[in-house]
Amino acid sequence: MTEDAYEDRPRTMFSASPIFVGALAVGYVMRLFFGGALPFPRAFSEGVGELMVLIALAVFGAAVSTFASGGETLRPDTPSRQLFTTGPYRYSRNPAYLAMMLFGVGFGIATGNLWTIMATLGGGVLMTYFVIKPEERYLEDKFGDDYTTYKNNVRRWI
After folding, report:
1. For residues 16 and 34, what is the distance between their CA atoms, to the nearest angstrom?
2. Which CA distances in Å does 74 have to 46, 140, 148?
3. What is the per-residue pLDDT across 109-127, written as a single tens digit (0 to 9) for each?
4. Angle between helices 114-127 and 95-110 (to 10 degrees)
């Protein structure tokens, strides 16, 4: 990789995927040691949680499809060649991260695990400050007014 190619990428401190997986693991371990079952009937929790997981998978699939149709991947360590504003990016600047959050919360609800929900939400805070904000600075530098206009019209999450 050339020095220029190396420089043309967001300067994130972490990747979102390990934060997300870590949140799921923390939620599981916390439940083992501290309890934390949700007070909902099992059928209700499973139904709502599974619906959220399915929505998350659909949103993630749409985000991947949008990037793929533009000839790019979701890998955060690669340069952005274009600004995506169609598909799920019309509604959220971070639909893949939103999908991770929906999946984690949905999984927590489906399994009746309050800790998974809390850890997922904590992971969302970490993603906002250590992944999303550096990505936003990169996109502002790269795409200028086009990204600023997009940012002013589309929310970060939903």
Report:
1. 26
2. 30, 18, 21
3. 999 999 999 999 999 999 9
4. 170
